[in-house]
Specification:
By secondary structure, this protein is of the alpha/beta class. Helix content is 48%, strand content 17%.
């Protein structure tokens, strides 16, 4: 299994890990969460520890909450240059479920899965109208 790290403003990342437990997809050896801007949490030390445990032959997938937000900028500045680390911003459960189970990640697979997830985000009121119109 690839290493997976969730990083967010506040505890959103911990909620994502908790949700993976519901789906029996949590592996404490491979999946971690680091909340930023949380009192009593030294996020930078946790990130340094995670980084020191990441081996050069391991693939890592890092999810951040907001593209170009401060957390994402920190992660990008630290990992964007690494070939074995993939960063996905705008984390949501759908994209996480699509990507964490894939062993042999590459840019094409990640891009395709993200597009699939984008296509699944809908305003359901409009969806209901379209379904109702199709029923007529």
């Amino acid at each position: 299994m690839n290493k997976v790290l969730f990083c967010s403003h506040g505890r959103l990342c911990e909620g994502m890990v908790d949700t993976l437990k519901v789906f029996s997809l949590y592996d404490e050896n491979h999946i971690k969460a680091i909340p930023f801007f949380v009192d009593g949490v030294n996020s930078n030390d946790l990130l340094d520890k995670w980084d020191s445990e990441l081996k050069s032959d391991e693939t890592a997938l890092i999810f951040t909450d907001v593209m170009f937000g401060s957390v994402n900028q920190l992660i990008m500045s630290k990992y964007q240059h690494r070939e074995n680390v993939y960063i996905v911003s705008g984390m949501n459960l759908m994209v996480v479920l699509e990507l964490i189970a894939i062993e042999d990640l590459d840019e094409d697979i990640i891009t395709s899965k993200i597009q699939n997830c984008k296509d699944s985000i809908v305003f359901t009121r409009n969806l209901k109208k379209n379904v109702s119109e199709d029923d007529e």
